[in-house]
């Protein structure tokens, strides 16, 4: 079955550590996205990529980094510069740009907690 | 400015009763509108979407929504609530022919079903 796989589901980070969240899709989608979700709030865009080897900052990119070396993979690194990283992180993809009305498909999410 | 407002962060209905989740949007151009559902600790799943054409859109699990330009609304309805409908629902506004940063998520409405 095609889909988006995020790992790990739960991750604990110590202060000052960088951690990387994995996102893999086998939908052959060109566009991929990372969102952050905090309780009681909607999703906020961290980074997005519309094509391999290219990505753009979203609304809350500070303290995060990404890479897009392969079409199917879009890992997110939460750096120590992110002061409040505890949140639910969602990876998503779409066949093309959403500005054509394409549906965004989501992974199951990853919980990151700072300890 | 583009925006989306979900009225009521929490809605509670009895099993078998009508479900009505409200969404109003603001957009300088005719938007694309989506409703997603999220079950606890999971990703978002598409319920339905409006891009062009028929303004009454039918989705999965018996849900439907009507695009009303005059009222700038895209309310989600279901004639008869089921216990399995308990979840969080997000209305999403996408500005056509724009970047991914123009995908605006509402803050969500948590739907509870009373036995």
Features:
heterodimer, A: 115 residues, mainly beta, seven-stranded mixed beta sheet, four-stranded antiparallel beta sheet, 11 strands, globular, B: 115 residues, five-stranded antiparallel beta sheet, 0% helix, 55% strand
Q: Structural class of chain B, please?
A: mainly beta
Give the largest interface: A-B, 30 and 29 residues
Instruction: Please tell me the overall pLDDT of chain B.
Output: 92
Helicity of chain B, as a percent range: under 10%
Major pleated sheet of chain B: 6 strands, mixed
Order of helices and strands of chain A: EEEEEEEEEEE
**Main sheet specs of chain A:** 7 strands, mixed
Radius of gyration of chain B: 14 Å
Number of strands of chain A: 11
Low-confidence stretches of chain B: none
Instruction: Please report which band the strand proportion of chain A falls in: under 5%, 5-15%, 15-25%, 25-35%, 35-45% or over 45%.
Output: over 45%
Report the total helices of chain A: 0
Assembly form of the protein: heterodimer
Strand proportion of chain B = over 45%
| Number of DSSP strand runs of chain B | 11
The number of helical segments of chain B is: 0
- What order do the SSEs of chain B take from the amino end to the carboxyl end, as H and E? EEEEEEEEEEE
Report the C-alpha radius of gyration of chain A, rounded: 13 Å
